[in-house]
Amino acid sequence: MKRLLAAALVVAFVGTASLAQAADKPNPTGTWKWSVTFGNQTREMTLKLKLAGDKLTGAMVRQGQETPIQDAKYKDGDLSFKIVFEANGRKMVIKKAGTVSGDTIKGKTEFERDGQTQSRDWEAKRVADPSGTWKWSTTFNGRTRETTLKLKLEGDKLTGAMVGRSGRETAIQDGKCKDGDVSFTVVRERNGQKMTTKFCGKVSDDTIKGKVEFERQGQAQSRDWEAKRVKE
Questions:
Q1: Does 154 lie in the same domain as 82?
Q2: How far apart are CA 46 and CA 62, in angstroms?
Q3: Exposure string (b/e) for 126-143, b if CB count within 10 Å is 16 or more?
Q4: Taking a C-beta distance cutoff of 8 angstroms, is the pair 95, 79 a contact?
Q5: Are the CB atoms for 117 and 135 separated by under 8 Å?
Q6: Does residue 4 belong to any structural domain of this protein?
Q7: Do residues 129 and 203 touch, judged by C-beta distance below 8 A?
Q8: Which of 38, 75, 87, 204 gives a 20 to 30 Å CA spacing to 102?
Q9: Domain containing 219: what range?
Q10: Nearest CA to 162 among 174, 173, 171, 175?
Q11: Each residue of 78-107: pLDDT tens digit?
């Protein structure tokens, strides 16, 4: 009996340790940003990465256009990939390699310039990305309703729509996102009256926490707001 109990404890411990190690394993999935200075001009670069198993995919976002990464590899926190794009009729190849540690990637960027291979340090920071589908519940007059919100982030521009019970979408207005802080307005008509609801909150992983502001009977009111990202 004692041996069985000891064996059970060992199995439980090993299983728990394995889960902890999996949780601690670096994951590059997310949106990453860094700045590049060239010719006295500084530009912010955006990279979207997604890890599925050991397969790494993603895209570099430039002026609203996405260029898929190629030859992507990832293992034990080390990643590498290349980006091929055209500029002024010339094909350019940029290779990146680095190590993921928390919300930072540190490594090197290699490219050709004037026929010479050059290398630069590369450090990217993960940013909170609200892109996706979010849901939360609201109780009013004893009735609970689930609300759905679709968001998409491009640079600092936040777009999206609130989905009604009938599936009708109402586009958000004045959408903004910076450093994980989101804000937007939803304007809808009900019974011939225009209703304006303002949302603001902070993105943390798969949760947005903040406030909702609206008018009721001529009085400005505020409520706590917490939305959960829907796993796709």
A1: no
A2: 7
A3: bbbbbbbbbeeeeeeeee
A4: no
A5: no
A6: no
A7: yes
A8: 38
A9: 132-229
A10: 171
A11: 999 999 988 778 888 999 999 999 889 999
